[in-house]
Write a structure and sequence with these properties.
This protein is an all-alpha fold and 406 residues long. Strands 1-2 form a two-stranded parallel ribbon. The protein has a two-stranded antiparallel ribbon with strand order 3-4. Strand 3 and strand 4 form a beta hairpin. Helix 1 packs antiparallel against helix 7 and helix 2 runs antiparallel to helix 6.
Length: 406
């Protein structure tokens, strides 16, 4: 069942800002001078951050569970964020708790506005950090352009929820993992995995990014291993995988001991046990909603918009050839695409839009492969432009918001 929201002639100026900054970043990648290229890229990212702060999203539908967090003021806010934290977004929840304390326990709305600012700053800081680490190499600059142009990246323009927070770390971490695998720099893989683990602590949805990265690593060390270029012994390969897994788990879970000992707050299960998947053939009733199966007209109508918003179509632009990393990423994308299809944003993607930010973390690996080519990066930008129209419809119409049954 849909909620009827009649929004006519809607625009999304945030898309213009993001795509404009992406165009500047792409132009910067074509400049021969490293110093000039880096300066122009930094200017584009600073401009992007200003746009995020000055043009926050306003949507007719609720932003995820934000309304539930603030509906009854402190009465709803404190049990979720002050006296306890929920496991599915334990680090994100504690950040909200600390913001609330710093601000002197204001209205919950103000706390979430500050959280949105922190999220915006984190997303841009991650890309700046990646750029400076890589000395603004043309390929990295193009990759950052593709990240900024990703339609769902617009949620960093002031979206008041947690689900998109992991993307701020997935974006800079994924190239580190891929570079580490390609060059045999296993400590770099562990660093990237640790960052992905921290993203999962911000919200459990980030586990998709960590899981994808670990899958790519396992494929690289087993089925796609080339003994000529990767002569590691079995024990060394196992150790590389254990390092990455350990770093990811540490980044995800290390905080919990601090909450209990340092802050004295409890961690509740929250929605961590909820089975958020669509049925395959038969509709079911869940949370007072009729959940349509994957093979239904409703879901098959929604899926193209999801695919557009998360940039999945750029998978078709992955360079052909015998590249080992290309084959690994393409194979690893198969379960991610299945996850995207079967994953259930319970309230609809027009309400739980932040859920979309992590249903296809493979985008960032695909973007890294595409960024090796200037021409393919430009074509991918055109594909992502179409995705912005999909996101515009998701955010500004009621077609994708599911109401509860009376």
């Amino acid at each position: 069942m849909y909620i009827a929201l009649d929004i006519a002639n809607s625009t999304l100026p945030q898309s213009g800002v993001a795509l404009g900054c992406a165009a500047v970043l792409f132009s910067a990648s074509c400049i021969a001078s490293t110093k000039t290229r880096g300066a122009l890229a930094v200017l584009a990212l600073v401009t992007l951050l200003l746009g995020m702060l000055l043009l926050p999203l306003t949507t007719p539908a609720p932003m995820g569970d934000y309304h539930d967090f603030i509906e009854n003021g402190r009465a709803d806010f404190e049990p979720r964020f002050v006296t306890a934290t929920q496991f599915q977004f334990h680090l994100g929840s504690v950040i909200v708790r600390e913001i609330d304390a710093i601000l002197g326990h204001p209205k919950a709305e103000r706390t979430f506005k500050v959280l949105a600012v922190v999220a915006s700053a984190l997303s841009v800081a991650g890309l700046l950090g990646l750029g400076f680490w890589a000395k603004w190499a043309p390929r990295v600059t193009r990759y950052i352009a593709l990240t900024v142009a990703l339609p769902i990246f617009l949620l960093f323009f002031g979206y008041h929820e947690f689900g998109h927070l992991p993307m701020a770390l997935i974006a800079p971490a994924m190239p580190l993992v891929l570079i580490g695998i390609e060059e045999g720099r296993w400590r770099l893989v562990a660093v990237g995995s640790g960052m992905l683990g921290v993203g999962a602590a911000l919200h459990g949805f980030g586990l998709t990014g960590l899981g994808f990265a670990l899958l790519v690593l396992v494929l690289a060390l087993t089925l796609f291993r080339d003994p000529a270029t990767s002569p590691l012994k079995r024990s060394d390969r196992l150790w590389a995988a254990v390092q990455a897994l350990g770093a990811g788990l540490l980044g995800w879970l290390v905080w919990i001991a601090f909450y209990a000992v340092g802050l004295g707050i409890d961690v509740s299960a929250g929605h961590a046990a909820f089975r958020a998947f669509r049925p395959t053939f038969t509709a079911v009733l869940a949370d007072h909603r009729i959940i349509q199966p994957v093979f239904s007209r409703q879901v098959l109508t929604v899926l193209p918009y999801e695919l557009g918003a998360v940039g999945a179509a750029v998978l078709l632009l992955v360079p052909s050839g015998a590249s080992r990393l290309r084959g690994i990423v393409v194979v690893a994308c198969i379960p991610m695409l299945a996850f995207l299809v079967w994953f259930l944003p319970l309230q609809g993607i027009g309400n739980d839009t932040d859920n979309l930010t992590v249903v296809f973390p493979a985008y960032f690996a695909v973007a890294w492969l595409i960024s090796a080519s200037r021409r393919r990066t430009l074509v991918a930008g055109g594909v992502l432009l179409l995705g912005h129209f999909a996101l515009l419809r998701i955010l500004t119409t009621g077609q994708f918001v599911y109401s509860q049954l009376p």
